[in-house]
Amino acid sequence: MIKEVKGQAKVSLGLDVIWKSLTKELQFIIPKLMPEQVEEGHVLEGDGGLGTVFLFNFSQGIKTLRYQKEKIVELDETLHLLGLQVVEGGHLDHSFSYYKTTFQLTAAHDAATAETIVDVTVAYEFQAEPVKASHTHMPSITMAHSLKFVKSLESYLLTNLVAAGSLTTG
User: Fold this and answer.
1) What residues does the Bet v I/Major latex protein domain cover (predicted)?
2) 110 phi, psi to nearest 5 deg
3) Beta strands, E only, the chain
4) Helix-strand-coil percent breakdown of the chain, rounded to 5?
5) The pairing of beta strand 81-89 with beta strand 96-107
6) Which domains does the chain have, with CATH numbers?
């Protein structure tokens, strides 16, 4: 039975800026923003669209995970929906048979501000075998890291866009 953990973050950038970074620069941006978790990222297959497979090598500080291959299984430009499913390594080596993180971006209702709501869903299913207690916390940890990543992406983009003169702060 597939279970879910959900979370949400609000970022002070327009939807298009966040969407582009999340979908077009993911393999580069994750290691840059979260080096304590992810050492490097590579595209193994695809062009960044549906079906693209990434390889993320985890940092040495992550003792329980060495690497993880993730595939874009959902990509909807209209709905601003990105779903990444683990297809090898990582969480699948720790009692999970299914593990997917989905990002849904929505423009904030206030048209006067450039804000985006980012809903994150971690969907998972355990294998039939008994599960270690430490593994049951992994989806919540993934959620916390995903929300931290979204806020780090916001800070990174705000700093770099302002420095480049592409964005004004008011």
Assistant:
1) 22-159
2) -80, 105
3) 3-11, 38-45, 53-58, 67-76, 81-89, 96-107, 116-126
4) 30, 40, 30
5) antiparallel
6) 3-163 (3.30.530.20)
Cα 125 from chain centroid (whole Å): 18
Q: Quick one: which of 7, 20, 21 has its CA closest to 144?
A: 7
pTM: 0.88
Q: Which amino acid is at 157?
A: L
Distance CA 19, CA 72 (A): 14
Neighbours of 77 (CB within 10 A): 10
Residue 11 contacts residue 150 (beta carbons within 8 Å): yes
